[in-house]
């Protein structure tokens, strides 16, 4: 995998804070910024996948009218059963 240099403008305060933190953690500011960006991307990709799953579930519900109530879903999780409960209409 290749790399590409990018530039990030930080306020004087942000630069001082990340520099101080990098010193305390014995890491470079560059390392901390890469880690922060990586974690942000992973979190946002996960959130996007949840949103897409919710949209798909909503479309499915509108097409079929099938659902499982929260009470039944919670009871199923607590039961430890692996067989899915039946759908409701």
Shape from CA axes?
Answer: elongated
- SS-based structural class? mainly alpha
Helix content: 55-70%
User: For the residues shown, what is the average pLDDT?
Assistant: 94
Which stretches are low in confidence, meaning pLDDT under 50 for 5 or more residues running? none
Q: TL;DR of this structure?
A:
This protein is an all-alpha fold and 89 residues long. It has helices spanning 12-25, 29-64, 70-79.
Explained architecture:
By secondary structure, the chain is mainly alpha-helical. The protein has one domain (12-79). It is built from 3 helices and no strands. It has helices spanning 12-25, 29-64, 70-79. Helix 1 crosses helix 2 (29-64). The protein is elongated and about 60 Å long. The mean pLDDT is 94.
What are the main properties of this structure?
mainly alpha; 89 residues; single chain
SSE blueprint:
Blueprint: H1 12-25, H2 29-64, H3 70-79
């Amino acid at each position: 995998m290749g790399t590409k240099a990018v530039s990030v403008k930080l306020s004087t305060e942000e630069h001082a804070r990340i520099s101080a933190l990098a010193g305390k953690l014995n890491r470079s500011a560059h390392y901390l910024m890469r880690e922060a960006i990586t974690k942000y991307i992973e979190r946002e990709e996960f959130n996007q996948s949840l949103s897409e799953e919710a949209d798909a579930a909503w479309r499915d519900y509108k097409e079929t009218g099938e659902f499982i109530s929260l009470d039944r879903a919670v009871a199923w999780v607590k039961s430890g059963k692996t067989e899915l409960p039946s759908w409701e209409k």
